[in-house]
Amino acid sequence: MDFVQSPDWPAAPPGALAANSAAARYGGAAPTPPSIGRATAPPPPAHSATAPPPYRPPAATPAGTGTHRATPPIPVKILVAGGFGVGKTTTVGSISEIAPLTTEAEMTTAGIGVDDPGQRSGKTTTTVAMDFGCVTIDRSLKLYLFGTPGQTRFGFMWDDLARGALGALVVVDSARLDDCYPAIDFFERAGLPFVVGVNAFDGRLAHDLGAIRWALAIGEHVPLVQFDARDRLSVRDALLVVLDRALDRATREKRA
Asked: Which of 53, 74, 93, 162 has the lowest CB atom count within 10 Å?
């Protein structure tokens, strides 16, 4: 409280003790106030016979050495597309390192005859806008996954979701190949690199990959892989194929 002075107390003359100082209350000689700045160097520490060395600023780190500020990873937008009920939402949720954003709505009787998830499916909800998740590949690359709605009536959203994307994973149910035709047609028209991933429902396919490629009429330049949308590592491998396809195209375009 030595620094507190009430407005009712008389002001101390310059160089004198403050009226509310500890020395004034309890007695004792007042220390001589130093001049502006430090008048003398501080004494050496008691545990050392000599004074510590003077402070020297650290030398500048040469360019290209030392620790650099970490740069944020490059964002890469990937679409997860396909027909209704093929496992797009499950795919995003299996790999996302954050709680995925979903826009699931309960299926009602109004969708009977319009939305057909197949006889093997116990699906009770459907995506009405989009799914979103992300996964970090390494310190330099991070994938942002956007799942598209599968119903034809939500097709108007695909153009917006595809803007800025570098590649796409088209998820296919081997028992309902006709549901993925619109997605393949969309990416072929858009000129966007894509990979066809056949989701192995119950761990098996209705047709082998060769027959599926023939039925989808896709060229050999389009990768065709089998994966399990419920398994994180399986989804990772499929997305790495998409990333490799996108990087290959970007490299070829840069050389051209």
From this structure: 53
CATH number, domain containing residue 106: 3.40.50.300
Domain that holds residue 220: 77-255
Query: Is residue 145, in this structure, part of any structural domain at all?
Result: yes
199 is written with which tokens?
């989701």
Residue 72 lies in a domain: no
Q: Is residue 112 part of a domain?
A: yes
Task: Look at the chain and report how many structural domains it folds into.
Answer: 1
* 133 located within any domain: yes
Q: What is the pLDDT of residues 128-146, one digit of tens each?
A: 557 889 999 888 889 999 9
Q: What is the pTM of this model?
A: 0.64
pLDDT in tens, 184-225: 999 999 999 999 999 998 788 989 999 999 999 999 999 999
